Structures are given as structure tokens and as C-alpha cells.
Recover the amino acids of this structure.
């Protein structure tokens, strides 16, 4: 059994949070959560966000609230979250698991830096999460790298 399962953090059954009210009769009727944008079809948008000269990076509860607010701003559905507080420097690592994928973070409060990973599929816009994080972490500098994951030919 893996460590998350021992903590009760692994779902044993598939979530129905993306289920429609219309019954699904076959695999061919399943909804496709891939994104079509700018002439491309892909699984989702993956943002790597570096927050510089940031504050509040040593408070797991505040980080949890911030990432959840950011997820909602992006239009995502929150399933659960988990954060770990490190000592002695006070850094925090954690994840907000979304129906549309995840937002994860690792902070270095001693350097006023946070590395954030946002991956979302479907109709969500992960870019809308960035201003929320910038405001609540009071980041003076933000660097964003975007990747489109799972590209397929149209």
C-alpha cells in the first residue's frame, strides 16, 4: 500500500464530479476533456510559475487557501488538498488535486521564492490562477512557462 493510501488520501472509486446528467451508453459517448485552441488539440495547459520576492510562504493554511482560491478563479473543481510544512526553514510543499488535474507548490521562504505547477484540462483557464497567487503571496516578480501537454493531430 502506498503512503497516500495509508493516510486515506487515495480515492478507491472514480469520482463522478465530471458526470453529466445524461446517461452514458457506451465508451463512444464519453465526453472528451481535451482542449481545442489555436488550431491544436491537446490534453491541457501546463504552467510552470516562479514567484519571486514573495511573502506568506511558510504558512500551510494560507497557502492552501490561496491555491484553492486560485483554482476556483481558473474555473477548476477542487477534490482535495494536502500540504507539508518543513523545518527548520519553514518551506511548504503541497498540492490541490483538481477534477481537471492539479496545482502544486514548493516554497523557499528563506529566499522569498515559490515554484508553482499548474496543469488543467477542459474549459479551465490556468492563467486566471496567476493574479490570485501574485496578489495573495505579494510576489514582486512572476515568470511563467507554458506547455501544451498531450498534443494530437486534428
Amino acid at each position: 500500500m502506498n503512503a497516500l493510501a495509508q493516510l486515506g488520501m487515495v480515492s478507491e472509486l472514480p469520482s463522478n464530479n465530471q458526470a453529466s446528467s445524461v446517461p452514458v451508453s457506451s465508451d463512444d459517448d464519453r465526453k472528451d476533456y481535451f482542449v481545442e485552441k489555436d488550431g491544436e488539440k491537446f490534453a491541457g495547459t501546463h504552467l510552470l510559475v516562479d514567484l519571486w520576492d514573495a511573502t506568506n510562504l511558510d504558512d500551510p493554511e494560507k497557502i492552501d487557501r490561496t491555491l484553492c482560491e486560485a483554482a476556483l478563479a481558473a474555473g477548476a473543481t477542487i477534490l482535495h488538498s494536502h500540504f507539508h510544512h518543513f523545518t527548520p526553514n519553514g518551506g511548504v510543499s503541497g498540492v490541490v488535486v483538481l477534477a481537471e488535474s492539479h496545482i502544486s507548490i514548493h516554497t523557499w521562504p528563506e529566499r522569498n521564492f515559490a515554484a508553482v505547477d499548474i496543469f488543467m484540462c477542459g474549459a479551465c483557464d490556468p492563467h486566471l490562477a496567476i493574479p490570485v497567487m501574485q496578489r495573495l503571496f505579494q510576489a514582486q516578480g512572476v515568470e511563467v512557462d507554458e506547455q501544451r501537454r498531450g498534443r494530437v493531430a486534428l
